[in-house]
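Section 5.1 Outputs to date
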Amino acid sequence: MKVVGVIPARLESKRLPGKPLLPLGGKPIIEWVWENTKRVDLIDELLIATGSEEIKNRAEGFGARVFLTSSAPRSGTERVVEVARSLPADIYLNIQGDEPFLTGELIGKVVKGLVNSPDADVATLAVPATEEEYLNPNVVKLVLDENGFALYFSRSPIPYFRKKACTPLKHIGIYAYRRDTLLSLAEGNISPLAEAESLEQLDFLFRGKRILVVLEKTPPFLLGIDTQTDYQRAVDYVSSLQKD
């Protein structure tokens, strides 16, 4: 199977403008993501998909291949769709450009999950959530069925614990899609659920797609950068590593 990895990137983040190019340990955030993804042997081609000339120039400066998208995409998935229409493959991997600590090992597990699960349309990643993350609307939670497929994603604390019978889970923003699934997701309007929670993965469920969730119970340090607070935590973490 041919696998194409895509890192969608845009400058116009409402909560943290210019996020992909913010410095982290001497290089932009998106370069961390690119370097980690380059380590995955299963990926045949890797590129950064952006509508920004500034991101394009910086990415090409550190050696990345860049696919210049239109300015129209509403989500990272729509940027990956633009790539898929020009670059045929069996599986496309969407690695969000704000996950600088997502390791090549974890990325590879998501790809393998989809390759080895013929019943899955999409594969993604989850890890245990702390109590703080469980209550934080900036952290996306999810619940699974007995076979490891997603039932629902939410910014709200799910499940609601009348009795704590399981560990809450945090979603990590990475997706592997089969080609036909990816192209079908580009059709139609955004679903009411996805619009309500501002979560594109709810479109997948709304349209009947099966999302396999790779559950990593003891993950390394992971931090998606969505806000200024997240960014400062990432800077402090990298500084602590450099001191050691």
